[in-house]
């Protein structure tokens, strides 16, 4: 878990594929929760997808949309 310069928590997941691959679709799911019946906490606010051949040289590919 990382904190950015504004204090927001960031979670990083790194997937290392055994060969150079073309990824055409990404789907990811998160569980939302609410402390009571009138409030729903949705996390994360956004998901950024980065890609590259080397971990130290990743480029932003897209931001995932909520479905």
pLDDT < 50 stretches = none
Q: Separation of termini?
A: 25 Å
Count of individual helical segments? 0
String of helices and strands: EEEEEE
| SSE class | mainly beta
> Biggest sheet: strands, sense, closure?
2 strands, antiparallel
Strand order of the largest sheet: 1-2
How many β-strand runs?
6
Record keyword descriptors for this entry.
single chain; 67 residues; mainly beta; two-stranded antiparallel ribbon; 6 strands; 0% helix; extended
Provide a descriptive summary of the structure in words:
The protein has strands spanning 2-3, 9-10, 33-36, 39-41, 48-51, 59-63. The protein is extended. The protein has a two-stranded antiparallel sheet with strand order 1-2. It has a two-stranded antiparallel sheet with strand order 3-4. A two-stranded antiparallel sheet has the order 5-6. It contains no helices and 6 strands. By secondary structure, it is mostly beta strands. The relative contact order is 0.17. The model has no long low-confidence stretch (mean pLDDT 82). The protein has a domain at 40-67.
How are the elements arranged and paired?
Layout: E1 2-3, E2 9-10, E3 33-36, E4 39-41, E5 48-51, E6 59-63
Antiparallel strand pairs: 1-2, 3-4, 5-6
The gist of it:
The chain has strands at residues 2-3, 9-10, 33-36, 39-41, 48-51, 59-63. It is mainly beta and 67 residues long.
């Amino acid at each position: 878990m990382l904190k950015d310069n504004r204090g927001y928590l960031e979670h990083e997941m790194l997937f290392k594929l055994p060969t150079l691959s073309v990824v055409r679709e990404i789907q990811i799911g998160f569980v939302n929760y609410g402390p009571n019946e009138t409030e729903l906490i949705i996390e994360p606010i956004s998901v950024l997808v980065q890609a590259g051949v080397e971990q130290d040289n990743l480029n932003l590919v897209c931001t995932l949309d909520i479905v």
